[in-house]
Every structure is written in C-alpha cells, then in structure tokens.
Amino acid sequence: MGHFFSYIVEPGLLSNSAVRTAFLVGTVVAVTSGVVGVLTVIRGQSFAGHSLADVATTGGAGAFLIGVNQFWGFLIAGVAGAAIMELIGVQRRRGRDVATGVVLGAALGAAALFLYLGTQTSSTTGASFTILFGSMFVISPDTVPALIASGVLALAVVAVLSRVLLLTSLSPELAAARGVPVRAVGIAYLAALAVAVSLSAVVIGAVLSTALLIGPAATALRVAKSPGRAMAAAALIGTAVTWLGILLAYDSFYWPPHGHGWPVSFFVVALVVMAYLLSYAWRPRRSRRERVAAAAADQKEPACSPA
Amino acid sequence: MTDNDLLRLENIGVRLGGRQILSGVSFSVAPGQFTGLIGPNGAGKTTLLRVILGLQQPTEGRVLLNGSPKTRHGGGLIGYVPQKLAIDQDMPLRARDVVGLGIDGNKLGFPLPSASRRRQITEALEAVGAESYADARIGELSGGEQQRVLIAHALIGRPRLLLLDEPLANLDLKSEQGIVSVLARLAHDQGIAVLISAHDLNPLLREIDTVVYVAAGRAAAGRTDEIIQSDVLSALYGSRVDVLHVNGRVLVIAGEEQQELQAHHPAETGVVVGLDRT
C-alpha cells in the first residue's frame, strides 16, 4: 500500500466494526436520500422535507427519553408529521404557512424538553449531540436490518410511483384529468420522504438530515439530463460524500484536539456544499440576458388599438 | 345534434359554494370539428372544461362521450392540454420526456427505453412541429414551444377529442397562429375533435368551424357567423351587445350593466365589456 493511500485511509480502518457499519448504513441512506431527494426538489417540497426533519427531532428525543433506539422515534414522528402536514395542507391553503410554523416551533420546543429530561436521568453524555447532529460511528448493529429495509421500502415506493409523481409535478390538473389519484400519490410520496428523512437523521442527525436529502439531489439536477439520470447521479454523489466524510472523520482523530475525531456530519455537509458549488462551474445558470430574451419572445406584441 | 356526435353536453348546470357558475349549457362536438369555447374571463369556460374532463361533477345535466354517459376519465378518448406547467426552468425534463409521460405517465412503474417508444415520441413531436427542440429542457422553451410539446403529450395517447385550456394566453401573434394552424390540421386531416377555450375570438376566427360562446354562466353554440350576432349575444348576456367588424377582426361590445364581467385588456381581448365606445 502506497504512502499516500495509507495517509488517506488509516491502517485498520475496515477492521473496525463500527466503521464497517457506518459505511454500510451510510451507503443505504445516501442512495435512498438521493433518489427521494430528486423528486423532492422536482416537486418543490424541500420545505416539507425540512419540516419533517424538525418533527423527527422531537421523535428522536422522545425515543431517547424512554430508552428506545432513536431511529424508531425519527420514523414514527416523521410519518405522523407527514400525515398532519397532509391534513393541514389540504384543508386551507391560506393558513398553511402559519400552521406549519406553529407546529414546528412546538415540535422543537418538545425536543428541547425531552433531551433535557433524558440527559438528566440517564447521564448519557453526547446523546443530545447524536440526535441533533448524528454520529455514524455509534449506530447500533441491531438496527441495521431495519435501516436497510426502510431504505429499500422508500426506494420501492418511489420506483413504483416515479412516472405518476413526474406527471403530477408537471401539472396536477393534467394528472387528475388522466385519472391519477393525485392526493393518494402525494400521501404515499410524503411517507417515503418521511422514511428518507428518518434514515438521513440517523446518519447525519435530525437537524442536518435535509442536507443529505436536498444537497446531492439539487447538484444532480443541475448536471443531469433526465430525472432517471439525476436520481443515479444524486445517489452517487450522496454515497461519495458519505464515504469521504467517514474517511476524513476517521483521520481527524489525529487532528487537534488530539484524540477526539471531528463529527462525520460536518464533513458530509461540507462536502455536499462543495459538490453543489462545483455544479455551477459545470453548468452555469443561464445568464439573465438569455432569460430576458426568451421571455421577450413570449410577450404579446402591442395590440393594435381599435380606436 | 346527430347520433355520431363525439361529445354532447345536455343541460349542464354547476353550482359552487352557493353560486350558480353554469346553467343550461348544451352543445355537441362531432369528430373532425374545430370548436372555439369563447367568452370573457370568469364566464365559466374553465368550469365547463373541468366538467367535460370529469374533474367537476355537474349539479344538473349530463355529459355523453361517444354516445354513452362519460366514465370517470373518458377511457383515453380525451386528450387534455393544461394552460401552463408547474415546474421550474431548471428541471431536467426534456420535451421528449414530457411527451413520453403522455404514453404512460398515469401508470405505475418506470419507463424502459425502447426503439418503438422513441419513434412514437418523435412522431408526436413531428405532428406539432416540435422535433427541433425534442432534447431541450421543457422549462427553457418559450410559451408557444411548451404548448406544442403539451399538445404532442396529449396526442400520443391517440385521443379522439382534444381539450385545450387557453393555449393562446400570453403568446405572441406568430406563435398564436402557429398553434391554431397545428390544431386546425389535427381536426381537419386526422378527424380529431378539437375544443379550445380562449377569451379572444380573433386568432381563431378563420380556422374554427363552430363556436360555443359562454357569458354569464350560459352558452350559445353554433356556426361562428350564426352566434357572433348582436341579437344572439344580447340574449346570452341579458343586455344589449354590439358586434363590430373592424378590418377582419370582431369586437364584441357588451352593455354597461355587465360591470361584473371585466376584461382586463379590452383592446387585446376583442371582448370589450362595460365600456362605452360609441
């Protein structure tokens, strides 16, 4: 093994079972988040993803308080949050922003209480940090099968509904006219989104979970030519940043302060942002002048006055 | 009305939230007929299209499609072109992908590329003169180009009736004429019944066979020269309406009692409402 390679990849990296779990779960989560994230961005539901992450935080904190693995807390709260958002969203468009804001504030307030009570009673150091910002090296091996199964389930839902979701994003009216049950499809998709957010919360924390969901997807959408290729690219980008994040976090054990590795989440999120910025170098946004020219072609010519 | 009507509306009435939107609307459309659904903004055109599409249940009357009461989604007989798309400019959907969704966008699963699928999409794009931007992102096309792609999307399912919701809104004159001639060709060469809603009659005047004029929730249907008459439209509006012919354009001037029907740009719409221009 060359000197450079052993510099990046610390010796003994893969003999560590926590690291192997991190790579396995990280890959499943990156692929799920990438694929689901592409549809989230196309459907303009990034904010819904962020709201679900806030609600999942409460669930994770609650699970910690009662001594259950936090993934189940993320998942149950996320799916319940998706159901509540659907109810609020359908009833009255006008009141939606306000209702969402109030609910999210209450959710994070409850999370603060649960984390406080949990850390008081169990004296587990670092639990709050793990729930809020994640820690891939402390994923319990018991939950790995459930994490993989959830990821596969979310991917299956999106694969089965992909065409219908695209048609609905293009024009809800058109989809409805062609017999698509738009509301049911939206609910199924929100459920898949809640699962993806919960998985992402396990890896990089509830607060940061949308970074892995939206970042790789937004980057892929800028460079890919079709939705299918964007999903593949998002899964690849997500996997790449997760693996690199794990490597760098493992290396950072020897960085200051010595003996304390930096959080994986920091590296993952930093790499996500770098990938997104690089996509602008790859495919610059159309200049303002070009867009104005295209818009001008659509403008109606001045009508001849009948007078 | 004849037995071979493709679409027939019988005495359609719609009440929404205690307001009567449409009442007593009856007309029929035959195969190969190019019909304009004309009326000022807010007259009930969109509601009428939604009734035909099955998105709005009428409170009275019924819709017959091919001689039998319409099933929920028209069994693939109807192709629909919405007014505009809900996606951003940056979305990686090519014109070709949008047309492909016309084949199977309402089905589960994901599409596998095949030569026959590709050929079918190319043919639909050629039928509307959109083949030159088949691989461009849909969001980066102009309004007129997007309309052509959406018409190809509707055509690929081989509908017998094509419904278009204000496809000429916000188009320049050249794109307007291009879309209208594509539609006329589909109707007259391929025998597809085309029903297009518009607030301005003039771009359609030379090409359409019949007009359904909607005003104040009621409708009058027939040949354009029969309907666009002062006495017919006066009866429809319930007040005096004048029809002026100016340089091959038609201006419909409704009386001062129709304040609630507002045309935002009377000079453009050709439906001049509530203005005294005598």
* Architecture per CATH nomenclature, i.e. the level-2 architecture of chain A: Orthogonal Bundle
Average pLDDT score of chain B: 84
Biggest sheet architecture of chain A: none
User: Which strand order does the major sheet of chain B show?
Assistant: 6-7-8-3-9-10
Q: Could you name the CATH topology of chain B? A: Rossmann fold
How many strand units of chain B? Answer: 13
What structural class do you assign from the helix and strand content of chain A? mainly alpha
Distance between the termini of chain B: 38 Å
Name the CATH superfamily classification of chain B. P-loop containing nucleotide triphosphate hydrolases
Q: Please tell me what the overall shape of chain A is.
A: globular
Helix and strand composition category of chain B? alpha/beta
CA-based shape of chain B = globular
Radius of gyration of chain B: 19 Å
Order of helices and strands of chain A: HHHHHHHHHHHHH
Number of helices of chain A: 13
Report the total helices of chain B.
8
Assign the CATH class of chain B: Alpha Beta
CATH superfamily of chain A: ABC transporter involved in vitamin B12 uptake, BtuC
Tell me what the structure shows.
The complex is a heterodimer of chains A (307) and B (278). Chain A has helices at 3-8, 17-42, 46-66, 70-91, 96-122, 127-133, 144-170, 172-177, 182-204, 209-223, 227-251, 264-282, 288-298. Chain A has a single domain, classed as ABC transporter involved in vitamin B12 uptake, BtuC (Orthogonal Bundle), CATH 1.10.3470. Chain A is an all-alpha fold and 307 residues long. Chain A is globular. Chain B is of the alpha/beta class. Chain B has one domain: P-loop containing nucleotide triphosphate hydrolases (Rossmann fold). Chain B is 28% helix and 27% strand. Chain B has helices at residues 45-53, 95-104, 115-127, 143-155, 173-190, 224-227, 230-237, 266-269, and strands spanning 7-16, 19-29, 34-38, 60-65, 68-69, 78-81, 161-164, 193-198, 210-215, 218-223, 241-246, 249-254, 271-273. In chain B, the strands form 3 sheets. In chain B, strands 6-7-8-3-9-10 form a 6-stranded mixed sheet, with helices on both faces. A 4-stranded antiparallel sheet of chain B has the order 2-1-4-5, covered by helices on one side. Chain B has a 3-stranded mixed sheet with strand order 11-12-13. In chain B, helix 5 (173-190) links the parallel strand 7 (161-164) and strand 8 (193-198). In chain B, helix 2 (95-104) runs parallel beside helix 4 (143-155), helix 3 (115-127) packs across helix 4 and helix 4 (143-155) runs parallel beside helix 5 (173-190). The longest helix of chain B has 18 residues, at 173-190. Chain B is globular, with a radius of gyration of 19 Å. Residues 257-278 of chain B have low confidence and may be disordered. At the A-B interface, helix 7, helix 8, helix 11 and helix 13 of A face helix 2 of B.
